[in-house]
Amino acid sequence: EVAKVLLASTDAETGDVDTKKLSKYVASVAYDLWSFGVVLFHICYGISLFNTDQNDNVKRDDLQTLAEAPDGPWRKLINKALSSGERRNASVDLTAAAALLRKLLEPDPSKRLQYFERFNTPMEAVLEEPFFQGHNVDEATLGEIRAEQQKHTAMLLRMEQKADAAFLQLITMGEEHQRELRRTREVLL
């Protein structure tokens, strides 16, 4: 869907997007759901579905393949990864992730939207999925998640306290020290 639009509006030689051609594109929540699914897939499985350049732009060859065969090599990769979450011995959170990702990465945009019609907005429906609600997640897993959250919160608090102390030291520092820091910065840069 979007791959075809981007391909049609991108100059093959420069890689620049022609905004006049791009203006024909009609945005859809279905495309947003797909994009969210691509990011969530990468987070859950550690696998990027597309090769990108240093600016995170999808490589032209991948864009071409996706535009011509939306159910091609990516669908095989997606199905292989998601099947690991559907095994009997898979963890509950991986099973919930696989179920959600099957819906988000549905190739047909209209079917993708249908999966998430039960709330005011599709994103509300996504957030009510078991993956985000923790339904059927055992207490041990929830305990690990809570412990990790507490660890990160404590780390952020320590960083904030250090930043506050450094800022206080900076604003109370004398003019001579400020000049010295500026000179040091100039020498280093």
TrEMBL record:
This is Protein kinase domain-containing protein. InterPro entries: Kinase-like_dom_sf, Prot_kinase_dom. Residues 1-132 form the Protein kinase domain. Gene3D superfamilies: Transferase(Phosphotransferase) domain 1. One of its GO terms (molecular function) is protein kinase activity. Keywords: Membrane, Transmembrane, Transmembrane helix. PROSITE patterns: PROTEIN_KINASE_DOM. The keyword Transmembrane helix applies. The keyword Transmembrane applies. The chain crosses the membrane at residues 33-50.
